[in-house]
Amino acid sequence: MDDARFERHAGDALTVNGKPCDLTSVRASEAAPADLVILTVKTTGLDQALKTMERVVGPNTLIASLCNGITSEQKIAERFGWEHTVLGICQGMDAVFLDGALTFTNAGEIRFGAAAGTDPATVAAIDELYTRCGIAHTVEDDIAHRMWAKLMLNDGINQTCMAYGGTYGSATEPGSEQRRCFVSAMRETLAVANAEGVELTEADLTQMVHLIEGIDPAGMPSMAQDRIARRKTEVDEFAGTICRLAAKHHIQAPQNEWLYRRIRDIEKSW
Question: Shortest CA distance to 61 belongs to which of 6, 109, 130, 125?
Fold first, then answer.
């Protein structure tokens, strides 16, 4: 943690499904290079995280980003290089984290793979570590496709639940306005991905809908949790990215445009 955050939060009590969870924290000013850095921050905090982790990254440190969206790895590589950086996402989890308590029924899995400039040994080393640790994961040959599929899901489920104050259950209720919003936002992302040269299909979209239908209906994605906690959201990474690229390719994206305005209005109301 950066030093000021360490003073505020190093002693916070944390639980996972009701059980105490003790994590070791160190001040950024006292940190030393690590073998592996895993970034699991919101994109709104990425720039600060990159600054905080400078002392943790040495010449041989591997970096894995599990941040939402499709832009975090580029920002990481601009500062630390591509050789030891992998592209990745996590999916399938239904975790809720509020007031120091993490609850989940589905742990999800990590999907990751090499960028054009990634050393293959980096992928192999991270794969071996996750395997030893028992962390569910898949090494993807086409990680760009998987990242766009996750962005498509986030554009739909995260933003819909935030805009409507919904849950996984309400967003997938047959015939509901939330389900229409959920699917419409994803379909616009699919069109933009295709224009960007990534071959998302209706089968990918349907797979994502079924994924959400299969997890805890009372659960909610991170943006819905942001609404409860009144935190700045990742709407720029989701609808913002799609709206910018849709304009570039002359694609209509009214659902994402509405979600962007609606979510920004909710944030301003705080």
Answer: 125
Contact status, residue 12 vs residue 99, Cβ threshold 8 Å: no
CA distance 6 to 191: 44
Helix (H, G, I), strand (E, B) or coil at 144: helix
Q: Helices 143-153 and 202-213 meet at what angle, rounded to 10?
A: 60
Q: Which residues contact 253 (CB under 8 A, 6 or more apart)?
A: 188, 191, 192, 242, 243, 246
Q: Which of 161, 156, 250 is nearest to 207 (CA)?
A: 156
- For every one of its 270 residues, what pLDDT tens digit does the chain have, with 9 covering 90 and above? 999 999 999 889 999 999 999 888 999 999 999 999 999 998 899 999 999 999 999 999 999 999 999 989 999 999 999 999 999 999 888 888 888 999 999 899 999 999 999 999 999 999 999 999 999 999 999 999 999 999 999 999 999 999 999 999 999 999 999 999 999 999 999 999 999 999 999 999 999 999 999 888 998 999 999 999 999 999 999 999 999 999 999 999 999 999 999 999 999 999
Quick check: 109 and 136 in contact, CB under 8 A? yes
Residue with tokens 């720029």: 236
DSSP, res 98? E
